[in-house]
Each structure stands twice: as C-alpha cells, then as structure tokens.
Amino acid sequence: MPDYAIFYEWAMFAARWLHVVTAIAWIGSSFYFIALDLGLRKTPSLPPLAHGEEWQVHGGGFYHIQKYLVAPEFLPEHLTWFKWESYATWLSGAMLLALLYYVSADIFLVDRNVLDVPSWVAIMLSAGSIVLGWLLYDTLCKSPIGQSTTGLMLVLFAILVAMSWGYTQLFTSRAAMLHMGAFTATIMTANVAMIIIPNQKIVVADLKAGRVPDAKYGKIAKQRSLHNNYLTLPVIFFMLSSHYPLAFATQWNWVIASLIFLVGVVVRHYFNTRHARKGNPHWTWGVAVILMLVIAWLSTSPKLPSADTPTLATATGERFMSTEHFKAASLAVQTRCSMCHTAEPVWEGIYEAPKNVILDNDIAIANRAHEIVIQAGWSHAMPPGNLTEMTEAERALLVEWYREGANS
C-alpha cells in the first residue's frame, strides 16, 4: 500500500499513547505503595502479626490500612494483585521499541558512522543487551553482594555507566539513550514478574496449605520494590529524551545518562525520607540542581559528528536517493527547511536544529524521507506556520517522491 506510512505513524502514536497511560498507572501505584509502606505506624491497637497501619483520607472517605510483613493468620476472601500495570507498561514499551527502532532499524537504530552492521544484527544486539541486563542484575542481587545495600548499589551504578557508554558504541545517539530506558525498565518489570509476584504466590500457597510463610520472601520482594522505586525517575527521563537532542546528541551523552541516575536517586531519597517521617533532607534538591547544571554544561559540548554530516546513506535512504523525483524533492526541502534544520541555523531565534534533524544535504534528506513526508507532505506541521511558504505543489512533490521510494 503506497500510503503505508500513514498507518505506520498512527500505529506508533497508538502504542505511545498506550505506553504513557499504562506507565502512569504503574508509576502511580508504585509511588503510592512506597509512600504507604514508609508511613506505616505501630500502634497498641494493631492485631497480632501486623507490622503497622496508616489512616488516610481521600474521595470523601477514610481508609484504614494495615500491613503484615509475612502474612495474616488467615487469607482474606478477596485479594487484589498489582502486576498488570507493570506488565502492560513493558509490553506497550516493547511494542513501541519494535515499531520505531526495529521496523525502521536502518534509520533510527543503526548509525553506519558508528557501527556499520545489518539491521538484523543491530536488533539482536538490542534485544540481547536488554535480556543480559536483567540476568546480570538478578545474579548480583542473589549473590553475596546483594546482602549489602550500599555495595550492591555501587556495583549496579558502575554497570549502568558502562551500559550508557556501550550503547553509544552500538547505536544512533537517540537509540542509545532510549535503550538505557528499555534496559532499566526491563529490570523493573522483571523484578515484578520474576521475583515480587512469585514470592507473594508462595506466601499465599503456604497460607492456603496451613503453613507459616517464610519471612524471607517478603524481604526479597521489598528489596526489589525499593530498587524499582529509585529507578523510576531515570526511566521517565529516558522515555522523554528522544525529543531533546541536548540530552542525546552530544559527545558526553553517556555521562549525561549516568548522572541522570544520580538525580533520580537523590530526588527519591527526599520523598522517601519525608514519607518515613525521618526529616526533610533539603540538601537533596541542592545536589539535584548541581547535577542538572553539570548536565546542562556537558550538553554544550560539540555535537556528535555523524549527526550533522552523515557520510553514509542507510539502505532505505539509498532507495529514496535513486528515485526520479529525488533531486526536486531535495531542492524543495533545502529551500524551505534547511535554514533551521542545519548544523548552524540562520533563522532568528533558532540556535540548534529542532530535534537534531539535519536536512541540508542529500544523504540526510534521503535518510529521513519518512519523517519529511509526514511532517511536510501529508501534514502541514512543517515548516511551522508555513513561515517559508512551502507550496502545495512542493508538498505534493514530497508525497510523490516518498511513494516512489517506498515502492521501489
């Protein structure tokens, strides 16, 4: 179908929408339960085996919540499980990753100036690294290192720094940053699917069988839940990073990614301390601000060379360059778009190419044919407000050029 790109674009939009909605549900419940857990109080009126309780007011009513570290004496008739928020978030994220970075791997995943490999190799590296991340993390948690909270966190941070750098040696800068989010989010969801829920099921099975559940299962699940809590904010940053070139398209992008984990940790430490009623560590905000200033300074370093001056067309780009209307389409794009979408924009008030999209040479234009036809062919999103007065004939030309390349 010649206009497949339109359906593809809507599929990505739907997947992104679903991913955002499910992420809100998961993160919301995660933050709520961490805050609830830290705010529990011991009172004389607690029933046997109860660890603590909390009174809350919401929606015009009052809630009285009690927590059992192991289990109550009897299993309640109705038990609510919190797991599908996590699973749905990961599945929708995997769908979005596949639609954007795997279906169009030669454009968004492979940077031939970084690592010139076939698309299928890049996809295998992507999926393999994500699975490897979980296996390595899980092994560490179950090792003697996992018995030391501080030691484990230091080793995990070293691994995250190494992965941040490693991804920049494999993929496009945009994909490298996004993969840090996928890498971390997979650890979080696997914690739920492989550790937290199975441990809770063991406890439930023991209760049904009349056995006293082992407290170790709750302790292990709580450790993984706490890890998820501290990893949440960095994952959200990586989800948003693809829209901000200053985060992913400079030579210190891997350091920026590493520092983001520290920002997330200190911010969560502030809220966790508050919820536990252990004071107000305002110093954490000072540290977060300093780290963000360092990140902003790092982002002023020169952009990655391949982003501005691609020397190799993708396999898809080569098809679009060989079409009959390519020269005319390239001229139209450079005439109407390159004053902003260039390494050194000349349009007043524009200092960086929007989203780091460079459109001042044939290779860059051919590589981004899909984005060009969506933004300036089938829609009038670009140029903004049609400031450069792109004509309807030029927009029709871009559509015709894209159809030629898509069908070649």
Report on the architecture of this protein.
By secondary structure, this protein is mainly α. The protein has a two-stranded antiparallel sheet. It is elongated.
Layout of strands and helices, then pairs:
Layout: H1 4-38, E1 50-58, E2 61-68, H2 84-102, H3 105-109, H4 119-142, H5 149-168, H6 173-208, H7 215-241, H8 245-248, H9 253-275, H10 283-298, H11 305-308, H12 315-321, H13 326-337, H14 362-367, H15 369-378, H16 392-407
Antiparallel strand pairs: 1-2
Helix pairs in contact: 1-2, 1-7, 1-9, 2-6, 4-6, 5-6, 5-9, 6-7, 7-9, 9-10, 12-16, 13-16, 15-16
- Helix/strand/pairing category: mainly alpha
Gyration radius, in Å: 25 Å
Shape verdict: elongated
Distance between the termini: 12 Å
Could you spell the SSE succession in H and E letters? HEEHHHHHHHHHHHHHHH
**Looking across the biggest beta sheet, what order are the strands in?**
1-2
What's the total helix number? 16
Helix content: 55-70%
Q: What is the mean predicted local confidence, pLDDT?
A: 88
SS elements, strand count: 2
Strand content: under 5%
Sheet having the most strands: 2 strands, antiparallel
Low-confidence stretches: none
